[in-house]
Amino acid sequence: MRRTAPPRPLPAALGLCLALAALTACTSGDTEPPRAPAGLTAQAGSATSVHVMWEAAAPTDGVTGYQVFQAGQLVRDLPAEKTMVDITGLTPRTPYDFTVRARDAAGNRSSLSAPARATTPDARAEDRQPPTAPTTATGSARGPRTVRLEWAAATDDTGVTAYDIHQGGVRIHTVGPGESATTLDGLQPGTAYSFTVRARDGADNSSPDGPPVAVTTPADPAQGPGTAPTAFTATASPGAVDLSWTAPGTGRATTEYQLYVNGQPVTVIQFGAGAKPGGPATHRLTATEPAGTAWTLKLRARLPDGNWGAFSAERHVVLAG
Of 30-34, 41-45, 269-273, which range is least confident? Predict the structure, then answer.
């Protein structure tokens, strides 16, 4: 009788490979690509650099990164939180075309965005003098997620080539030399922002900051709770003012608040790790001014993204003796 040898076990690597293949065959993966990025702009920042930016994808698109192309060649690969980039090492007085596409966690890639073109200015290698700062700047909210900024033109010995808008010390937008206003989109509702404008010349010299522009976007009822503390109260007692409020519904514990008295920031109230109250937050403010002194108080919360939220309602108290 001929005996049949028992089957030998599969090598571990091959067994894993077959198991993964079976799993893939039994499950339907994500094959739908994200939408192409919109709002692509390109602005020459100097004779050898171009600032490229685009609108962030909606959270429902599941985008995990962006790829930036120059003349069809990949020049930058960026994470999802980056929606702007400086392309450097370019040639002066040369036109450049850029496109961007998005990718998701499954590796699906969108189609390319509409192209944007920028032309670098002449090089001025010996230019070491920065432009003057814009002398005036104003801003206003145009909706829960939009702010309009305007500024006075700067001057430079060789000519301004761009204006950079900064928020929280970070450049968030760039426009051309002939612009004296811009609209910023994609902001957070019910949030306090501070913007500054800098001028830049063809040698990449940047001016000092122009005057800061403080703008608070209004709350958006469609986006859920606002960012302002609610139920704010202030009660005077001899030598103190007792404060109470309810934290804004940001989805995370709020541990830091900025308190204003008579329109000026006077202190930052912080709750340490594990000290965040479960109910209304409270704080006792020491008062050393004479009895009868009038105070107007308001406060705002530090949001999870690091910005300050909208102010609470103002409360008026008269210090007690």
Answer: 269-273
DSSP state for residue 298 in the 8-state scheme? E
- Dihedral sign, Cα of residue 40, residue 45, residue 48, residue 51: negative
Question: Residues of the chain with pLDDT > 70: what percent?
Answer: 87
At 14 the pLDDT is 39
**Is 202:47 a contact under the CB 8 Å cutoff?**
yes
The pTM (predicted TM-score) of the whole model is 0.59
Write the CB contacts of 174 (distance below 8 Å, at least 6 apart in sequence): 43, 45, 51, 53, 162, 163, 164, 165
Q: Are 148 and 74 in contact (CB under 8 A)?
A: no
Residue with tokens 């073109």: 117
pLDDT above 60: residue 24: no
| CA-closest candidate to residue 151, choices 128, 172, 123, 182 | 182
Task: Evaluate if residue 5 carries a pLDDT over 60.
Answer: no
Cβ atoms 282, 240 nearer than 8 A: no
Dihedral angle of Cα 159, 164, 168, 172, to the nearest 10 degrees:
-170
- What mean pLDDT is predicted for residues 81-109? 92
Close Cβ partners of 33 (under 8 Å, ≥ 6 residues apart): 104, 108, 109, 110, 111
Please report which confidence band the pLDDT of residue 114 belongs to, taking 50, 70 and 90 as the band edges.
very high
d(CA 25, CA 22): 5
Contacts of 150 (CB under 8 A, 6+ apart): 137, 138, 139, 180, 181
Helix (H, G, I), strand (E, B) or coil at 158: coil
